[in-house]
Specification:
444 residues, alpha+beta, Outer membrane efflux proteins (OEP), 4-stranded antiparallel β-sheet, two-stranded antiparallel sheet, 9 helices, 10 strands, 62% helix
Length: 444
């Protein structure tokens, strides 16, 4: 990380600089904490709403699967006209005789019912599959919330960084202007060279340019947060959280984070549900090969009576109840490859679950080590700020006593500003890695 009077370079994963026209932050900014931003995002995020509706539809799918356990009942009715019936007594190549019909009407109504006694546990398997799908949707929703909360935390911390950096640079500009006034007076009196005045003016100009970029990026971070919350883009925000970890934010051991991730991480739960679903698909294919036994009943009202001999031109009622056995012989050879495919998918999902665990361990280890590294940096950077402050004080005094060069003073000024920014950046980075650990363990 480097900071000088010509450019500002900050961690790429956090804070890309974009050049826009400068916008002043309004004095009537809305104070807001990260916790409050999260609550608004949970209420207004369109992505979260979509996943929530998908989870709700999964609950209805489970109810629909359970409803298949109820008897199947149907009703149908018909009405039509019969044509004259030709009888070919002398073959189809000769003119037929016709059976006279007194009434050409035909009508009927039927009520039928079927109730499964046994179907290879196919209904039970389907209910389990829909229940697993619903849980899968719920875990995907949880993972979406965790991911969005982390993105919001990034934007919030980004805004904090730029606002703090703006304060530092504004203070530095004020000090530079005061110093420039003194140098101008010394130059007028012939005490210092023209080059000293030009260097001081250039330093001030570069700092003002840097301030413009910082303010632009603060506005971009505000817009990002407003979009997350569903608020107008131009609404000005003022973060109220302190920079750095709070007293209630304690770091656990690496092993505790791993155990928590295995038990609570939405990614781990999603992988586990996919394994369960692929296993149920295999059981469902096996159920298709088993016989189906059920009770059936038909109650039929028809006219004319042409089912039983002798026929009658009169309406009749016929009821039938019994047990029905059905078996799909073709499933023995049709579903062979389907079963093999399902078994391969099952093995694939088991490996995918292990892959998710590997990535969780890797991500947690990375965030944990960076978190520890940030803590060590903060201690060192606090000392750097003290040293840079004292170094600037000495050089500022010696320069105006004609005992040091302007370049030494300007370098000391830049080093102090850089040390102050590095300290703030390290605290922000520490907080971000803490949230990253919470995200990977499903606690964000």
């Amino acid at each position: 990380m480097h900071f000088n009077c010509y450019k500002i370079v900050v961690p790429v994963f956090l804070f890309p600089l974009v050049s826009l026209q400068a916008q002043e932050v309004s004095k009537d900014s809305i104070p807001i904490s990260l916790e409050k931003v999260w609550k608004k995002v949970s209420t207004n995020s369109k992505e979260i709403k979509m996943h929530h509706l998908h989870t709700e539809s999964g609950g209805e799918a489970v109810k629909n699967a359970k409803s298949k356990q109820l008897p199947e009942i149907g009703f149908n009715a018909n009405y039509g006209k019969l044509a004259n019936i030709p009888i070919f007594n002398n073959g189809v190549l000769h003119h037929p005789d016709y059976i006279p019909l007194e009434d050409h009407s035909i009508y009927g109504a039927t009520i039928d019912a079927y109730f499964d006694i046994y179907n290879g546990h196919k209904l039970k398997t389907n209910i389990q599959k829909e229940a697993v799908k619903q849980e899968l949707s719920q875990y995907i929703e949880e993972e979406t919330i965790e991911s969005i909360h982390y993105q919001v935390a990034q934007a919030y911390l980004k805004l904090q960084l730029y606002l703090q950096l703006e304060k530092l640079v504004k203070k530095n500009i004020y000090q530079n202007e005061e110093r420039l006034n003194l140098i101008e007076k010394l130059h007028t009196g012939g005490v210092v060279l023209k080059s000293d005045l030009l260097r001081a003016q250039l330093q001030l100009s570069k700092q003002k340019t840097a301030l413009t970029a910082i303010r632009n990026n603060a506005q971009l971070a505000m817009q990002e947060l407003n979009i997350f919350m569903g608020e107008p883009d131009e609404q000005n925000l003022k973060p109220t959280d302190n920079i750095g970890l709070q007293e209630n934010q304690k770091l656990m051991s690496y092993d505790d984070y791993i155990d928590s991730a295995i038990n609570k991480s939405p990614l781990q739960k999603i992988a586990k549900q996919k394994v369960a679903l692929s296993k149920l698909n295999i059981e469902g294919l096996k159920a298709d090969k088993l016989p189906r036994i059920g009770l059936f009943g038909d109650y039929n009202y028809s006219y004319p009576q042409i089912k039983l001999y002798p026929y009658e031109n009169a309406p009749y009622l016929l009821g039938v109840v019994g047990v029905k056995l059905s078996y799909s012989i073709s499933s023995i050879y049709h579903d062979v490859h389907k079963e093999e495919e399902a078994k391969i998918v099952y093995e694939e999902q088991k490996i995918a679950q292990e892959y998710v665990q590997d990535n969780l361990r890797k991500d947690i280890n990375k965030a944990y080590k960076h978190y520890i590294e940030d803590q060590e940096k903060i201690e060192e950077l606090q000392l750097n700020v003290k040293q840079a402050t004292e170094n600037y004080r000495i050089l500022n005094q010696t320069y105006f006593n004609q005992l040091s060069l302007i370049t030494d003073l300007l370098d000391a000024d830049t080093q102090l500003l850089q040390a102050q920014f590095d300290l703030i950046s390290a605290k922000i980075s520490e907080q971000l890695h803490y949230y990253e650990l919470l995200k990977n363990t499903g606690d964000l």
